[in-house]
Amino acid sequence: MEGAVAGLVLVGVLVVFAAIIVAKSIALIPQAEAAVIERLGRYSRTVSGQLTLLIPFIDKIRARVDLRERVVSFPPQPVITEDNLTVAIDTVVYFQVTNPQAAVYQISNYIVGVEQLTTTTLRNLVGGMTLEQTLTSRDQINTALRGVLDEATNRWGLRVARVELRAIDPPPSIQDSMEKQMRADREKRAMILTAEGSREAAIKQAEGQKQAQILAAEGAKQAAILAAEADRQSRMLRAQGERAAQYYQAQGQAKAIEKTFAAIKAARPTPELLAYQYLQTLPEMAKGEANKVWLVPSDFGQALQGFTKLLGAPGEDGVFRFQPSPVEGDLPKPEDDSDEVADWFSTETDPAIAQAVAKAEAEARAPVQGAIPGTQQSVTAPVQFNQPPQQPIDSAQGGRHSGSGDL
User: Fold this and answer.
1) Residues facing 73 on adjacent strands
2) Is 37 within 8 Å of 63 (Cβ atoms)?
3) Which of 122, 201, 276, 407 has its CA 20 to 30 A from that of 68?
4) What would you report as the CA-atom Rg of the chain, rounded to the nearest whole angstrom?
5) Is residue 165 within 8 Å of residue 100, measured between CB atoms?
6) What H or E segment, with its residue span, contains residue 307?
7) Are 152 and 107 in contact (CB under 8 A)?
8) Separation in Å, CA 362 to CA 168, 365, 380, 385
9) pTM higher than 0.70, yes or no?
10) Residue 289's CB: how many other CB atoms inside 10 A?
11) Do 222 and 365 contact (CB within 8 A), yes or no?
């Protein structure tokens, strides 16, 4: 009985020992992770991403190293600038283990080593810069830090991919001074821009007033020229119309006299009728407003008798009767001056006047030098005085004429 119990205990011990041996001899290393294996305390090999067999109690895994790129943020470090100002700089380092054996055997803690190397290098770089240069030279500092760290950590089996300055915090007093300076700069720029705007506005306003006055003066000048030209043309046309009207009136009076004379000769009036007409005319002669007293001559009868003797001849009974004057067949006709006065009735504008008006219009529409872009001048077109021409009265047509025009 005692022997059976001892045998079971021995079997159990053997099973446990076998399990331990199996656990010690098999190791599973995942991908992106490396294991450094030692044999009897010395480096044997590095395995990654596989099932590895170990010799129990002889081989052991010294360290497991993560092969992925790691991001480490270091706490803010106080750094003194060239102008003796202390700033706190927070850095972020991106690195990756490329040689697990060197990362295990060359340095005890590579993360602490990277942190300390970053701090010392950062103080060395920033110590040669002023605060303003430090704030405006982040890219330069990042590039310099990366180059130094990558060279220094290469023997540790590390590769520094990137270094970033996450924050640069000046002292509170410097921050307050910087804020005041920036506020003053903004106010200065605002005042400068306001002054520039006021100056530009004043200049533009003065230019606008200048151009307005120039345009007004030009418009008044062209208006005066056109008004004078229009007045000249109107006076010339009015004079031409009065001259043509007087010519028409003279022609009418000539025709009226001719018709009256012909009618008197055809009617053959007696001296009694002429005397009667003479007596009827006398009161008309006395109707003038300036005539207060009208005297009839005492020899009025002898005057009538003399007038009768001039117009008549005594008949067989001794009575004076009207004796018409002999009709002359070849009487001279009035001279035809239609060709000479033809241009009196033309109302067309003189070419010289038209040329002067066209020149005035061209000058009025010409842009003024220095005018504001977009402004245009406009002058009202002059009144056209062209009218259809009239023909003078032909004396052979008895004072009749065809066509009429407004003079």
Assistant:
1) 92
2) no
3) 122
4) 67
5) no
6) helix 300-311
7) no
8) 72, 5, 12, 19
9) no
10) 5
11) no
Token digits of residue 167: 């924050």
Tokens 């010339």 belong to residue: 236
Tens digit of each residue's pLDDT (9 = 90 or more) over 87-102: 999 999 999 999 999 9
Q: Which of 350, 354, 335, 351 is nearest to 392 (CA)?
A: 335
- Do residues 48 and 29 lie in contact, with contact meaning Cβ atoms separated by under 8 Å? yes
What whole-number distance in Å separates Cα of residue 356 and Cα of residue 362? 10
Q: Give every strand in the sheet of 26-39, ordered side by side.
A: 42-53, 26-39, 59-66
Beta bridge partners of 88: 78, 169
Q: Is residue 39 classed as helix, strand or coil in its secondary structure?
A: strand
What pLDDT, in 10s, does the model give residues 345-359?
A: 666 666 776 777 777
- pLDDT of 283-331, one tens digit each? 776 666 666 665 555 555 666 566 566 656 666 666 656 565 555 555 5
d(CA 313, CA 324) in angstroms, rounded, equals 10
Q: Where are the alpha helices (DSSP H) in 127-171?
A: 131-136, 138-152
DSSP 156: G
**Mean pLDDT value of segment 176-183:** 86
